[in-house]
Structure formats: structure tokens, C-alpha cells
Amino acid sequence: MQYTFIDFLALIGALGFFLYGMKIMSEALQKVAGDKLRSILAAMTSSRIKGIFTGFMITALVQSSTATTVMLVSFVNAGLINLIQAIGVVMGANIGTTVTAWLISLLGFKFSISYISLPLIGISFPFMFSRSKKKKSIAELLIGFAMVFLGLEFLKESLPNIQEHPEILRFLAGYTEMGIWSVLLFLGIGTLLTFIIQSSSATMALTLVMTNNGWISYDMAAAMVLGENIGTTITANLAASIANVSAKRTARAHLIFNLVGVIWVLLIFNVFLRIIDQFLTGAGLASPFVSAQGIPVALSVFHTTFNVFNALLLVGFAPLIAVLVTRLVPLKEEDEEEFRLKYINTGILSTAELSLFQAKKEISVYARRSKKMMDYTRSLFNAQKEPDVDFYFAKVEKYEEISDRMEEEIATYLTKVSSGHLSPYGSQRLQTMLKLIDNIESISDSCQNVARAIYRQKQKKISFPASLRDNVNKMLDLVDKAQDIMIDNLDDDYHNVKVDSAIDMEYKINRFRNKLKKEHIKKLKEKEYKYDAGVIYNDIISHCERMGDHIVNVTESIIEKFD
């Protein structure tokens, strides 16, 4: 069996196809995923036990833990579920993949979802030309979904077909008598084969062929099964390589969870195998140490027992795993921050008043995101290189989408809270909060308008004299200080509001805007700069002033009800 350079290029192409499918699917998910899908997933993963069950059911249905974890990465990337919820699903996916192992060992049956990929593309493709954005986004989602599984199939086909030529591995029979080193060797082989074949179930089938031919013993086969649990995490980590920070953390959590499981089993490896052997012989079945016929069922029992016990042992440590992967994959300045409700994504609390407290904290997060958006706008204005300009403008556009979604979801949450029992004071707070999120969303809109004006200037290569650049930066400084005061007022109790500071800063913004307007008219007449530069400059200053109005409105909305 020859493996040529063309075959290697086909492998690289298959990997690219798979990753592109992941990108298309994740982006389409963000467009399609409305409140219903997000709320359904949130309900299904609201506790770790529910998450485990969800992961188990999905994996049992699609018969691939790889497929489940790849979809899971896309869900996290789209902001549909958070890291803790994802870890529970990962645990369930590991248990769900044992269903496939039982089917292989008992029935020799494996369903591949890639069979329906091309028909799915055929059905979806006409809707790509639809005028309806929703239909087009759904079509993109389905095509991306199909591309992911076609990519997995192409990856399998682009590698040496070890599954159909197991005799390639016959030489391994000579490496089964080295004690713990043999166990580690076959663990590594299981990991490598699962990565190459891109399916732990296929590797399980290959392992069974090797035991059936008498090349390896039950204990070496069990070591390969442990390796398969590590190898199956590689595809999810590949999928996460183009995703956001939370998706990368989810993939790392899957790897850590499986690694920890493999480590504790290795520590009691021989004892673990003997317990399974006693269980099987006690049930009247053949011992896998004595008869090769008893190995398939024994491996399935080993695989299931290992994954179930691993989930039970580590389910309580999900927050610790989350902390660990957060440190391993820190949020860098250049990383894309995904949409996430930090405090109110777990549903209504026991009392409406407590729910309002959570909403108050969420609104503070919302305000900070609007300020982060402003920071990117300032970076956009001062950027000189074209890649930096495109990068910062894309950040602003992304944050504006996040702002719209946050407003919608916080408003939906507050509407649900209003149906509960609220005191008159609580009702006032709720009405205030609705005004607050409306004004914060308006801040983001104005910030986006500033960024678009700046981007237009950069695209048309319109130069600003040093005096105009200094004026814009001074205006951005004033807006920045106004936002700091706004955030302090939102963080503090609504009875302790720095009203004078907020109004004074808004007055400074207005006064500076008026000064610049007068200077602008004078300098245009004197032709100190071109008219097209003056138009964009005027737009930037005007939108900054409007942003200042919305910022002070936040403070005024608070004192309107609580003065």
C-alpha cells in the first residue's frame, strides 16, 4: 500500500474542508440561534446531570463522540452554552460512545452521518439564493453541518487505510510482553490510530480484529481502548483551532477529562481488568484472559465501566476543570470575545427580587462591553496599517451585534421577572433597568456610527491634519471618562449616584463639540483641509456628542426613579 505526495495533499485539503465547514456552521449558528434554541440548550444543560444525559443521548443517536464534541465546540463558539455546561455534555458524550462499542462488538453495525451529507447540501443549496435572511442562514447552517461530516469522511479516506489492512499492525504482536511499557505503547497506538482514522468506534473495531486474530491480548486491547479516549479529543481540538476562546477551552476540558480518567485507570489497571473478568465469569460468560471469544464483550464492559465511573468521579470537579482550562487558555487582547450572559443565563431565581439583583449585575457587564467597544473604536482611529484597521473595525461590528443580543436577552429576562411577585420598589427598579439597557444599546449604536465614519475615512485614504486628529482623540477622551462615571454609577447602589459628575462631563462634551463646530466652519472656509475630510470629521464629532447624551441618560434614568 503506497502513500504518495498527492495523497498527502488530499489529506491537507480534507483538513481544510473540515475546518471551513466548522467555520460556516459556527457563523450560521450565531445567525440562526434565537431565543428558542438557546433556551432549549440552556434547559438541557442547566445542571451537570442534565448535561451528561444530553451528551449521552446525542452521541448514542449520531453514534460518534467526535461528532458530538465537534458540534459542542460550535455551540460554545456561537455562545449558546457556557464552559461548565459544555463539560457536562463532554462527560455524557464519552458514555454515549460506548453504545457504539456495544453495537460493534455485538452487531458489527456503525451508522455514518456522512451518508446524508450530500443530500443535505442538495436540499439546502437552493435556499442560499433566498431573499429571506433566516432561510439563507439555515441553509448555511445545514451546509456547514454537512461539510463537517464530509470533511471527517475525507480525512479518513485521505489516510492509509489501516482499518481494511490490519495486517499492517501484525508486527505489534511482538511487543505485548514488556509489562507496563507494553500498556503505555498500546495506549499510544490507540491514541494515534484514533487520530488517523478519526473515529474511536472504527479504532475499536480494529482492536477487535487484532484480538480476534490473536495478535494482542485482552489487557493490550484495553490499553488501546484507553488510548482511543485520548485520540477522540484531537478532532474537537482541531475544530476549536479556528474558534473563540471558550470553544478552545471546551476542547481542552474534553482532553483533560479523558486524560485524568486514563491516568487513574492506569494506576489500578490490572486490578480493574481482574474485577471485570470476575464479573463476566460470575455471569457465566467466557473469561477474556482465557478465550478470545470473551474479549469483545469484555472490552465493551471495560469501555462502559471506565467512562461511567470517570463521569461519576469527575462530575463534581467540573468547576475546577473550568478554572484549569481558563488558565491554560487565557483570554488575550486579540481574541474575539463571544456573546455571553454572565449572571442571568441560568433562569429565574427563587424570588423576583433576587432575579433583579442578578439583572443589575448583568447590566453592569453590558455597560462595560459598550466601553470595550469604544476602546476598539479609538484603536481603529489611531491604526495606521490596513490589517489593523480591518481588525479593529471587525471588532466594533462584532460588539455591536453582541450589544443588540444582550439588550434583547436582558429585556426578555426582565419581562419574565415582571410576571413574578415584585414589591413597588422592585417594580420601579425593573422599569429603570429597561430604560438603562435601552440607553446602553443606543451608546453602542452611536459608537458603531463613529467607527463607520472612521472606517470610511481609512478606506478612502482621507488624511486628517494633526489638529483634527488631536481634537478627535480629545473628544474620545471625554466620552471615555463619561463612560467610567456611568459604569461607577451602575456598579454602585442606585441610591448613591454621582449625578453632578455625570452631568458635568456631558456639559464638557457639549461645550467641546460646539467649540469644534465653530472651528470647523472657519477652517473649511480657510481651506486648511479638504471638504471630504471635514464631512467625516464632523460626523465623528457629532456621533461622539450623541453618545455623550445617551451616557448621561443612563444616570438620569437611575435618579428618575430613585431620587
Based on the model shown, name its key terms.
563 residues; mainly alpha; Methane Monooxygenase Hydroxylase, Chain G, domain 1; 2 domains; 20 helices; 76% helix
Brief synopsis:
The protein has 20 helices and no strands.
Describe this structure in words.
The structure is a single chain. Helices cover 76% and strands 0% of the residues. The chain is mainly α and 563 residues long. It folds into two domains: 5-328, no CATH class; 352-562, Methane Monooxygenase Hydroxylase, Chain G, domain 1, CATH 1.20.58. Helix 4 runs antiparallel to helix 11, helix 6 (117-124) packs antiparallel against helix 7 (133-157) and helix 19 (499-525) runs antiparallel to helix 20 (531-562). The longest helix has 36 residues, at 424-459. Residues 107-111 have low confidence and may be disordered.
Instruction: Name the average pLDDT.
Output: 78
For the termini, the CA-CA separation is: 82 Å
**Major sheet size, sense and barrel closure:** none
- Radius of gyration (Å): 29 Å
